[in-house]
Write a structure and sequence with these properties.
binds iron/sulfur cluster, disordered C terminus, two-stranded antiparallel sheet, TIM Barrel, ten-stranded mixed β-sheet, alpha/beta, iron-sulfur cluster binding, Radical SAM domain protein
């Protein structure tokens, strides 16, 4: 493990300053604002206030607009969930508790800033087990190695450190199938129960969420499952297996009955890209089934049988981007695409960026991102050497990615911001990432990740993909984001811009 980091200079943009009220005050305020008689007006007021706040930042107008559309879609999604009862009062309390602590001050955040010259990462994504009951095509967890599992003590220690050392209040749990996690006689929900100030987003295939799991989720109150689907029923079953769609719909029913907020997670491939956000799919999941939010992951050629031909084409990616913002704007549904939402989170959030994250898998391997399968550290070795998760900040492989993010679009001056709709060092800028991997020698986390680095077709294919995306997406960036008069350009939601003004 390397120990010296490259220096990461700070560049701050001018932003309106907000003083964080105490969690108690925030909790009381949220409770009042979310009470049924005032909620509708409160949402509309908050919507306008967020738009106004973002308009005053130094952001490019298109970037401010995307941030605003994202935040308002979240507000309206909560409003819908409370109105229809898909979020129970108890689940809402759990969320408010998290929000009050997340937005309130935390001494660890200040201490971290002083030591590392940046705000701490905002969360971790942890895959505590590789064990899974399905066998989906192209899954990043699907290698042929034996199932790995983090011990409960290690899992819990990581979460506790995240809370204590970073003041973080959010954890993403992935897999394998997280609801199959067992260690030391405990399961995933035991971890959630031990950390009531945290909120857990759990990516799951949904097939093990029966009535009793849904009841426990309701009791715990700080977990939301994001269930994987691939579009309509036949497309979902083609990738995930026969009978899975019916099981997923059953899980939706159990969660609705218990008032546990849930969302969906979709992998966009060349085959299902145009189906994913079709009217029929949007209506089914968000209107009929009551999903609160949706995550879109464009297929990345990592994991079992990586296949570049499954990646969405640059043209499909642009169509998906257009359609996603259209759904967010018109339906006010909260949607996030790890790549196409780059404008809403100021680019890549990997490698421990301020507010960003690291990924830790079942073997304790720590990678910059779920989609970069090269480990700069291993949590077991780090703990054995007397370290904490703060030591991840010193790893040069991670620090160099953060350095690149600073130059690319995070805290850069607006006009110098590079294309945030192709923000990914792996998917879009392999010409940057490959030499970095060669220089630092992070450990491939599985055989496929090793093979990919030795496979000329993979390397040439990803480089060509990045170049092809640049050709399609750079003119869009220049026309619709860099140009300060961009609001007038076709494709930009005019009514949203009008409201923002
Ligand atoms: S490495 Fe790529 S996928 Fe991961 S956070 Fe950065 S942009 Fe997103």
């Amino acid at each position: 493990m390397e120990t010296e980091a490259s220096p990461v200079p700070r560049r701050e943009l001018k932003r309106p300053v907000l003083v964080a009220p105490s969690p108690g005050a925030l909790r009381a305020l949220f409770r009042v604002l979310s009470a049924r008689p005032v909620r509708g007006s409160a949402v509309r007021l908050a919507d306008r206030a967020v738009g106004e706040f973002l308009r005053r930042t130094d952001n490019l107008p298109g970037v401010a607009r995307d941030e605003w559309l994202t935040l308002r879609s979240l507000l309206y999604s909560f409003h819908r969930g409370l109105k229809t009862g898909t979020i129970s009062p108890r689940a809402w309390q759990g969320f408010l508790e998290f929000a009050a602590h997340a937005l309130g001050p935390h001494p660890a955040r200040e201490a971290f800033c002083k030591t590392y010259g940046q705000s701490p990462p905002g969360f971790l994504t942890i895959s505590p087990t590789r064990a899974c009951n399905l066998n989906c095509t192209g899954c990043y967890a699907g290698t042929e190695e034996s199932p790995g599992t983090l011990s409960f003590s290690t899992f819990d220690r990581i979460v506790q450190e995240m809370e204590d050392l970073w003041g973080a209040r959010f954890a993403v749990i992935s897999g394998g199938e997280p609801f199959l996690y067992r260690s030391e006689g405990r399961d995933l929900l035991d971890v959630a129960e031990r950390h009531p100030k945290l909120y857990f987003l759990v990516y799951t295939n949904g097939t093990v969420i029966d009535r009793s799991v849904a009841k426990r989720l309701a009791e715990v109150g700080n977990v939301t499952p994001a269930i994987s689907v691939e579009g309509k029923a036949p497309t979902t079953e083609r990738r995930r297996g026969e009978g899975v769609f019916a099981e997923v719909v059953e899980a939706f029913g159990h969660l609705r009955a218990e008032g546990v907020p849930f969302g969906i997670s979709m992998t966009a491939t060349r085959d299902n890209c145009d189906e994913l956000l079709s009217d029929e799919v949007v209506r089914f999941y968000f209107e009929e089934q009551g999903a609160l939010y949706g995550w879109i992951f464009q297929y990345m050629p990592i994991g079992r049988g990586y296949d570049l031909a499954l990646m969405v084409t640059p043209e499909q990616r642009l169509r998906l981007q257009r359609r996603m913002w259209d759904v967010i704007r018109t339906k006010k549904v909260f949607l996030m695409d790890f790549w196409n939402s780059g404008t809403a989170c100021h680019g890549c959030v990997a490698a421990g960026r301020s507010g960003g994250y690291f990924y830790i898998n079942w073997n304790g391997d720590v990678t910059p991102c779920v989609f970069i399968p090269y480990a700069g550290a291993n949590i077991h070795r780090l703990y054995a050497a007397g370290g904490t998760i703060n030591d991840l900040m010193k790893i040069p492989f991670f620090a160099d990615i953060r350095q690149w993010q600073l130059g690319y679009g995070y805290k850069t001056k607006p006009e110098a911001t590079r294309n945030l709709i192709r923000p990914c060092p792996h998917r879009d800028h392999f010409d940057f990432l490959l030499p970095l991997i060669k220089r630092h020698g992070p450990q491939p986390i599985n055989r496929e990740a090793q093979m990919a680095l030795e496979d000329p077709a993979y390397i040439q294919g990803l480089l060509a993909y990045g170049a092809a995306c640049a050709e399609v997406l750079d003119p869009v960036w220049v026309r619709e984001y860099l140009d300060r008069e961009a609001d007038r350009v076709a494709g930009v939601p005019a009514e949203a811009v009008a409201q923002q003004r």
